[in-house]
Amino acid sequence: MSQFPGSLKGRLIMAMPGLPDPNFSQSVTCICEHNSSGALGFIINRVHPLLTIRELFSDLKMPLVDDMDKMPVYLGGPVQPGAVFVLHGTPFDWEGCIPVTRDIGLSNTRDILMALGRGQGPEQAMIILGCAGWAPMQLDAEMMENSWLVGTLSMDILFKTRVDARWE
Description:
- By secondary structure, the chain is α+β, with helices and mostly antiparallel strands.
- It is 16% helix and 31% strand.
- The chain has four helices and nine strands, in the order E-E-E-H-E-E-E-E-H-E-H-E-H.
- It has helices at residues 53-59, 110-117, 138-144, 155-159; strands at residues 11-15, 28-35, 38-43, 73-75, 79-88, 98-99, 105-107, 125-134, 148-152.
- Strands 1, 2, 3, 4, 5, 6, 7, 8 and 9 form a nine-stranded mixed beta sheet that branches.
- The longest helix is centred in the last third of the chain and has 8 residues, at 110-117.
């Protein structure tokens, strides 16, 4: 089997219709890291059906301004379902922020959550519970099996496209 060329970091992968894993059926995943150690991504088209942003911030014992009430909480994947991550636009000066593209960063530290709760965080952000992870060469093998379609990651898709239209 030949190796899938190149990293998918900063790209979207969309599940092909026949993908048998129910965790990823009709999913759109933002790949934030992809190297010889494996891959890390976040499903961006699944909103938590029950948990509100207010309940999440209450559980975290953090204040939340009323303007944030309409922000959904996303289900990012089956790995670490209790971990909170933030995909966001600039600035990238949060503790531990990992640039994904020149416009999109990934953070999961308290400072960005506190800023968001005060209404002072990045203008564009998605709060996500859990992530998707692949072992070394696992995503590469799935790509070779045509399980995923690769697309371009953009600020418009992440922050302006309706959630239910992202896979389409």
